[in-house]
Amino acid sequence: MNIQWYPGHMTKAKRAMEESIKLIDLIIELVDARAPLSSRNPDIDSLGRGKARIVLLNKADMADERYNDAWAAYFKGQGCHVVKVNARSGAGLKQISAVVQEACKEKIERDRKRGILNRPVRAMVAGIPNVGKSTFINSFAGKACAKTGNKPGVTKGNQWIRLNKSLELLDTPGILWPKFEDKTAGMKLAFIGSINDNILNTEELAAQLILFLAQDYPGRLEERYGISFEDLDIKDISGGYVILEKIAKARGCLLKGSAYDTAKAAVLLLDDFRSCRLGRITLEFPPDKKED
């Protein structure tokens, strides 16, 4: 499956971000802790060159805790400040104000020497679709300032939000990049719901997710659905389809004539993964940090 999704509004959104960057002191970039590299838009690195950077590992509560700290160390090694958060519950958000001050201390000191006191830090909140930017802003502000939704593409334009005297946030639409050079990156983005499901073959996507789980999280599918892998060697997508049929059977997903409804089972599996009902799962690992 070769996944590409770059609707026209993203070109307009990127252009608006480029025009706003001169007003910005700091970029707060949200990534999905389950796929921290795949959920980073490489365009933001070039866009934010010379700006202070904070990476928020959002949905850290859904990712494998063994790897959250490893990813935090990885991004710190790239020169970013890092905070693990759950924007929906508010976990980790209390740390951010202090991290903002630390990330922008040179700018604040320059302002002080020039006699500019109490000018708020202006931060752009950036990230790919459905990574939780608007939910973060609302939780951080303690009120509904930005539209939220569980589908990509809810935020359509830039929006300034003044949180307090020391910090202003610019909410930006989620943007991807025009072409995924790494096919597996597109697949992981589809797994976590950052690609519009309407353009996807959900059965093939579910079969690919099964391949990943069979390799890196064996036992999760058996525990959730009460199925057995028996002597299956799950090395290619055909094995994924076999397991998908087992899930359909276990959950009573049937079509007329008693055929198994694998399309319904695929939706069920993807929803269980995205809702963390399969447990905490990380889809990719920092270099040299993958554990057996």
UniProtKB/TrEMBL annotation:
<dbReference type="GO" id="GO:0005525">
    <property type="term" value="F:GTP binding"/>
</dbReference>
<keyword id="KW-0963">Cytoplasm</keyword>
<dbReference type="Pfam" id="PF01926">
    <property type="entry name" value="MMR_HSR1"/>
</dbReference>
<dbReference type="InterPro" id="IPR016478">
    <property type="entry name" value="GTPase_MTG1"/>
</dbReference>
<dbReference type="InterPro" id="IPR027417">
    <property type="entry name" value="P-loop_NTPase"/>
</dbReference>
<comment type="function">
    <text>Required for a late step of 50S ribosomal subunit assembly. Has GTPase activity.</text>
</comment>
<dbReference type="InterPro" id="IPR030378">
    <property type="entry name" value="G_CP_dom"/>
</dbReference>
<feature type="domain" description="CP-type G">
    <location>
        <begin position="10"/>
        <end position="178"/>
    </location>
</feature>
<dbReference type="InterPro" id="IPR019991">
    <property type="entry name" value="GTP-bd_ribosome_bgen"/>
</dbReference>
<dbReference type="InterPro" id="IPR023179">
    <property type="entry name" value="GTP-bd_ortho_bundle_sf"/>
</dbReference>
<dbReference type="GO" id="GO:0005737">
    <property type="term" value="C:cytoplasm"/>
</dbReference>
<feature type="binding site">
    <location>
        <position position="174"/>
    </location>
    <ligand>
        <name>GTP</name>
    </ligand>
</feature>
<keyword id="KW-0342">GTP-binding</keyword>
<comment type="similarity">
    <text>Belongs to the TRAFAC class YlqF/YawG GTPase family. MTG1 subfamily.</text>
</comment>
<protein>
    <recommendedName>
        <fullName>Ribosome biogenesis GTPase A</fullName>
    </recommendedName>
</protein>
<dbReference type="GO" id="GO:0003924">
    <property type="term" value="F:GTPase activity"/>
</dbReference>
<keyword id="KW-0547">Nucleotide-binding</keyword>
<feature type="binding site">
    <location>
        <begin position="58"/>
        <end position="61"/>
    </location>
    <ligand>
        <name>GTP</name>
    </ligand>
</feature>
<feature type="binding site">
    <location>
        <begin position="130"/>
        <end position="135"/>
    </location>
    <ligand>
        <name>GTP</name>
    </ligand>
</feature>
<dbReference type="InterPro" id="IPR006073">
    <property type="entry name" value="GTP-bd"/>
</dbReference>
<dbReference type="GO" id="GO:0006412">
    <property type="term" value="P:translation"/>
</dbReference>
